[in-house]
Amino acid sequence: MTGETASMSRIAIMQPYFVPYAGYFRLFAETDLFVIYDCVQFPRRGYVHRNRLPDHKGQPQWLTLPLAPADRQATIQTLCFAEDAVSRLATARRKFPLLQNLPDEWEALFATVAGPLVPWLGRSLDLCCRSLQIDCPTIRSSELAIAPQLRGQDRIIAICKALGASSYLNAPGGQNLYAAEAFHKEGIELRFLPSYEGSYWSILFDLLTPPTSARLG
User: Fold this and answer.
1) Residue 15, domain extent
2) Is 42 exposed, middle or buried (0-12, 13-18, 19+ CB in 10 A)?
3) What is the number of other CB atoms lying within 10 angstroms of the CB of residue 108?
4) Structural domain tally of the chain?
């Protein structure tokens, strides 16, 4: 997947999550362009830098990416890995059987946790999409000239307009955040995915546990 600014009819806009659950990738599968929403405040209790995987007892435990200290108001695009992230992540992985003896491409990814976070997350999402046989280009919202004072729905609409989108697809949990009328006034159709009924484990569980397949629905 590569960033591009050509006009796209159907787009999704979402914060970049660390190896998210399978349902997240429905946004890639159903759109022409996925916007990595990195120009907003880092949600410290969210899934940008962490996710849960089963430990040796099959219990969910957090796997957290080691990040450098950041201001509480920091945006996602400014986050960087800690200097010792490679060794810290290697240590953290030991409590997860799923992360032992990884395929080479995943091992290489986990060995390159250095520098800015978002490009690394982009590569991880790309690897997930290739594993799921989904072909969808991406672009970072921080690459667009969006007025910094715009917030919430207004910011989403501005991104849609900047990319020439005629349709904006969102996860079902966003139905209380947006008003269809506001999008319609700008010539944009607001759509939502149907409820997700699959597993909420990290996609890694689906991709690395036989049979290695993930159900997006």
Assistant:
1) 10-203
2) buried
3) 12
4) 1
